[in-house]
Amino acid sequence: MDSTVLLGARPAIRLRVTMLGRMDVRALTGESLLPRSRKTRALLAILALEAPGLVSRQRIAELLWSRRGEEQARGSLRQALHELQEALGPEAKALIVATRETVALNDEGVWTDARALPALARDRPEALDLLKSELLADLDGLDAAFDSWLADQRRRIRDIALDAASARLAAAATPESRAQEARRVLAIDPAQEPVWRVLIRAEAERGDRGAAFAAWEECRRVFAERFRGAPSPETAALAESLRGEVAVPPPAPPPRNAARGARLGVMPLRFLGGDPDPEVSLGLAGEITAALARFRWLTLVDSTSIEAATRQEGGGEALDLDFSLSGTVQRAGDRVRVTLRLTDHRSPESVVWAERFDRDANDLLALQDEIAAEVVARIDPEILLIEANRAAVRAPVQATAYDLLLRAIPAIYRLDRQSYELAGSMLAEATRLEPDYAPAFAWYAYWHLFLVGQGWATAGSEVLARSEELASRAVALDPSDAQALAVLGHVRAFLHHRVEEAVTLYERALALNPNLPMAWVFSALALSYKGEHAEALRRWERYKRLAPLHPHAFFFDSARLVPLLMLRRFEDVDADARQVTALHSGFTFPYKLWLSALGHLGRREQASEVRARLVALEPDFDLVKARQRSPLQTPTDLDFYLLGLRKAGLT
Description:
Number of strands: 12
CATH superfamily of the largest domain: Tetratricopeptide repeat domain
CATH class of the largest domain: Mainly Alpha
Oligomer: single chain
Radius of gyration: 29 Å
Shape: flat
Pfam families: BTAD (PF03704)
Domain Bacterial transcriptional activator: 112-243
Protein name: DNA-binding SARP family transcriptional activator/TolB-like protein
GO molecular function, one term: DNA binding
InterPro entries: AfsR-DnrI-RedD_regulator, BTAD, Sig_transdc_resp-reg_C-effctor, TPR-like_helical_dom_sf
């Protein structure tokens, strides 16, 4: 059915805009008014979906011409507006409202399917069926920023359709209607395995066992082809029960919030040789447990609980640990040696981390503090990496927000555009699935930081506002989450250049978790942005002592380049930049500081090579963009950074 027939033609309507499927624009007479240029069509689509709101010219330029300079982008927008007005003909004057800074569409005279149909979807099945069509199916690939915006709009339409279809299914009272509405849900989201069971059961209740088995086979095919997995044993058991005509009661719905972290047990440390020293072994185990408890995503089982459980038959298995930290303590005179290992108990069980610590035994409290701090800073990212790798190979069906978060984190750090956009989609879905899950919002804000830092989106008002909104939401959900506070601080410092506010947030984050490497690194950056370069280096060195082999060292180690450059330690910048770019050649941040240092050193040939690598990653990076993006607060530091870039040949 043509979507335009769902609402009758009204005299006030001057324009009908169809965006579900291929874009089409018609006058009331039926005459086609579709603009010739795809970017002009995209301009109309943006205005129609935002109508009657005002859309800034800057935002439109950033969405459609993100790789051009500001003046060139605004010129292209003027040309597109002129083409749009010509395409709309005499109606353009009443429909397009343009000022020097904004553009809007007068929606009193416009009917748009993507705005009208969602309101009808719950009551009109034909409207719901039309919502399944892909929004603006012919406008992919115009610009990376527009593609990202379009993906968000498509998710919004899909979510509306899925909510409407799910509501219709919940209200269905007969097996026939349940089967029909279940198929509507599955047409939108075939990963809804509980709905497959509703469909199978409904067909069986109708007395059509052939249709029930056909639904089961279709479920198996979809899971195999789309998700490279198989339906759960619960669904398989339901299908098998049909063969013996055994009634299977409807299963209890799974809990909405599945486990949101790894379960880690800290075992009692064994004392080797000589007389046992419980003050060292028990004290250290307790200190490690207390330090790990500051990482909000870990569920901790302390050594006392483990010891009590192991004394009971089967008690150890009942703890259901994902990981355990165990080890030994040896004392010889004034020295103590602590050997620790982290074991992953999922099949195949294996030791995934081990380290030895030698310390002076004269100050036992200091010994416990030092070892506990270094241990937790090192095993937290190791566990996160293992969990992410496991999540990546699981079938992506009925994924929780935690599953999606785990899959997104490695994709963020790969920093290739396709993986990065996929990570953004997963994080957006995680925040939708569980709107009370603070880490999903924190990591989605973090995703926006790289989006701007890599030059994949301009630092326009929309991106800035969205990153602030997400990070603030994470902190509001869990004010004691040190990582969420650190991310909010970096949003304020790096994107908004509100460095003093960021410093306050970092101090709170470090008070909550003094063993969080990210907080030390971001704090170091903020202090360097303020001009406190020596203190910045001390804070960075604290991170390095805590986690010398951090999995994300390519990013965290790059932070040292800022104070090194400002302290005129150009040779150190050169040496460190070589190392961090060797760890990850696709991260743009270190190249910019490296290039400035080479400019000050007068190494034109080497600067030319580094500049070529940087421009290959971020083609529109120039002195204007460098000035706009830099969070350096003192004019002297900013001018010094830009002077180095200019000497290195950047224009």
